[in-house]
Design a protein that fits this description.
Structural class: alpha+beta
Radius of gyration: 20 Å
Number of helices: 4
Distance between the termini: 63 Å
Shape: globular
Helix content: 25-40%
Strand order of the largest sheet: 1-2-3-4
Length: about 190
């Protein structure tokens, strides 16, 4: 005879899972793409050592995911300006009509990261990602990655970057230029003209 699982226990497990999710230390950025590809930024603290002292600063682990491999570049120091510029880049990539022309390439020497939009369509954009691999302060290799994602995913990424900044005490301002009417076409107006 099979035993029934008491609903109280299921609820307890679900609540403890939700509690764990709420207590996750940092928001992260996950941009899914076609065929299982993805780009992820997971914030962390990085210890930067000087000659006489060390400091703990905001950092990020950068993961490149495709069907054949997962590569994570760990503990890259991230400055406040990196957050501001990455947020602006993702918003422009999501909202600009032709981000391959208008969106500035995001480039950070400190992160060893460059992200651009080489091609876009109405609802999708290609992301080109280059991560520099350095030894003793000299770039010895790069990890290049390109995939297609949705503009919605890029807009969500911009918001997650803003939340990361907020979590670390930075305020990232944004122009309130999201016009819902821009996303409505003749097929879904429902007679509102």
């Amino acid at each position: 005879e099979a035993q029934a699982i008491p609903w109280a226990r299921i609820t307890e497990v679900a609540m403890s899972s939700n509690e764990f999710i709420r207590r996750t230390p940092y928001p992260d950025v996950f941009i899914p793409g076609g065929g299982g590809a993805a780009l992820a930024f997971v914030p962390t603290h990085v210890i930067v050592r000087g000659e006489e002292s060390e400091a703990q600063v905001l950092g990020v682990d950068i993961s490149l995911v495709d069907p054949d491999r997962v590569v994570t570049h760990r503990s890259r120091p991230m400055a406040e300006l990196d957050l501001i510029e990455l947020h602006a880049f993702f918003r422009a990539a999501a909202l600009d009509a032709a981000p391959e022309v208008s969106a500035p390439t995001f480039q950070s020497v400190g992160l060893g990261l460059m992200v651009s939009v080489p091609l876009s369509e109405e609802s999708r954009a290609d992301l080109s990602v280059v991560v520099s691999i350095a030894e003793d302060g000299h770039v010895v290799d790069t990890d290049d990655f390109r995939f297609t994602t949705t503009r919605t995913a890029l807009l969500q990424a911009a918001d997650r970057v803003r939340l990361i900044g907020e979590h670390f005490g930075y305020t990232i301002h944004q122009a309130d230029d999201l016009e819902p009417e821009a996303f409505i076409d003749s097929n879904n107006r429902n007679g509102s003209e």
